[in-house]
Every structure is written in structure tokens, then in C-alpha cells.
Amino acid sequence: MTLTIIQLIVFQFLLPAAFMISLARGKFESKLEWLVQGLLTTAFISWLFFAQPWDWFSFYLRFGWLLVLLVLLVYTWKKVKSLPFRSAYSRNQKWSLGIYTVLLLIFGMYNVWIFGGYSTDEEAVELAFPLKNGVYYVGQGGNHPQINYHNTHPAQQFALDIVELNAIGSRAARIYPENLDAYRIYGEDLYSPCAGEIEESRNSLPDLIPPETNAEEPTGNYVQITCESEDVQVYIAHMQEGSLAVDEEDSVQQGDPIGVVGNSGNTTEPHLHIHAERDGEGVPMLFNERFLVRNDLVW
Predict the structure, then answer these.
(1) Final residue of a structural domain among 116, 138, 162
(2) Which of 53, 205, 267, 268 has the fewest CB atoms inside 10 Å of its own CB, making it the most exposed?
């Protein structure tokens, strides 16, 4: 987990700062040089904005980088607007333009993949959001691995991992606390997303102290609900030990309490995992007609 924190610091602080400083200090001799480097910086910040998980430090930090980018583009344009579009370039300048162009293509493709993951052609099932009375953040969600690592697993390809944000836009009181109560979502009530029957459940696995995991029981404490009107099985996983308010073969109505968010199973911290299946294949889910993707908020 230390590696994850280091990666987040690099991608959310150090790399964007390096891109911004490079653009601000660029000694451009033509508009083309500025355009290529400006587009690269924009493509990188766009990828950062949409693809990175922003719940560790603050959800609002992503908007800060957008603002810095806009100010910087205006500032640097004022310096180059009187320059010719092209000029005679040295070998080093040609190499720089070539490298920037390759990086621009790479991050441009990343953005194309991300935006492609914001929708699906498959028929979706409409469900009720299983949490209430908070600001909830989608950490994993969408139709591409760039924004949803579940997408590579057929049964869970449209699964969502959801946490709750505090007043500063973070999912926990500290970066990665061991105290489960420090996570905003821990202990939140869960409600049935549809009317149906409880087909499977588990209620006895312990809540783990981060970063402990239980790979042998990946779902932890969970319920499987067969939704009567949609012909799908909905799984809600990682629930708190002993918290289930339903038993197998119970009938539930949409909005009935079913348990509490916990940290059981193959999970590194408290969160809600939910996905829908039909015949072992993942089914897209809509909540209030929204197909949720990474960095979406639900109130």
C-alpha cells in the first residue's frame, strides 16, 4: 500500500507540477512548439482528471489542476502569439517536438479509451442506489480498465466500488488509517437496490484491519439478490460481520435494509462493491438513469 501512496503522490502532485513548470518555462521560437507542448500538457491533465482516483487526498484537488492549466495556457499564449507558426528548428528542437508528439498521441489515446468507457451498448438494468444520506464517490466504475479494473472480469465488468467522502473530499480521516471507523463509509446502512429474493448470503467473516485481505473469500460477507422484475442477480459485497438484516430465501422490497458496509473479504479498505450478473455475464447498471463511472458523485 505504501507503493500505491507513492504512485498517487507522483501522479497527482509531482508529474502535473513538472508538466506545468515545463510549459511555463518553455523557450518557444514558434507557435507550433507551444501548440504541441500545450496539447500534451492538456492531454495529460485530462487523463489525470478523469482516470486517477481522487478520493485519497481530496476530490477537489483535480479541479485545482484544471484551473492552473487554464491560467497557464492563457499566460504562455500571450508570450508566443506574436511568433511565427513555424521556424527553422535545431536537431534538439526536432527531437523535443518528436517526443512531445509521441507522448501526445499516447495520452490522447488514453483519453479516447476513458471516454469510450463512459457508456455501453449493452442493455442496462435500472436499480435503486443502495446508500443514503451521504456524498458517495465512485472509485471503480465504467466500461474500460482505465477507469474500472473490474472490467477485465466478465462477470464483474460493470461492477462499482463506492466510498463516502467527508467535508474535504477525502474517503478517510487520514491517508490510509488502520482504524476502520476513520473511513467515512464504514458502518453505513445498505438498502436493497431492487425487489426480489435473497438467493445467497454470508454473515460470519470478520472485518479486516487495512491492509489485510482475505483472498480465499473475495466477496466477504455478502448478499445475492435475484431481482424479480429485471431477471438479474445483484451482488453486494464486503459487508460488516453480523450486520445482515436478511436471510436466504427472504423476500425484499426495493429500499429495505439489508445490512451495513464493512471490510470483509478481499478488500483493502471499507467500501461498497456492487455488480449485476445474468448467466454469469456482467450487466450494466443504471442508478436514477445514470451509468456511473470513476470520479462520479452520488448524493
Answers:
(1) 116
(2) 268
CA angle 78, 82, 86 (to 5 degrees): 115
Question: Which grid coordinates belong to 197?
Answer: 429474493
* 231 and 202 co-located in one domain: yes
Query: Do 80 and 32 belong together in one domain?
Result: yes
Residue type, 258: I
Please, which pLDDT band fits residue 3 given cuts at 50, 70 and 90? confident
Domain boundary among 84, 116, 148: 116
Both 251 and 137 in a single domain? yes
CATH at residue 149: 2.70.70.10
Domain residues for the domain of 17 are: 2-116
**Model-level pTM?**
0.94
Q: What digits encode the pLDDT tens for the residues 60-114?
A: 999 999 999 999 999 999 999 999 999 999 999 999 999 999 999 999 999 999 9
Report the alpha-carbon angle 193-199-200, nearest 5. Answer: 100
Radius of gyration of the chain (CA): 23
Burial (0-12, 13-18, 19+ Cβ within 10 Å), 197: middle
Q: What is the pLDDT of residues 190-238, one digit of tens each?
A: 999 999 999 999 999 999 999 999 999 999 999 999 999 888 999 999 9
Count structural domains, the chain.
Answer: 2
Nearest-angstrom CA–CA distance, 137 and 26: 37
Measured distance CA(218)–CA(17) in Å, rounded: 38
Q: Judge whether 10 and 56 are in contact, CB under 8 Å.
A: no
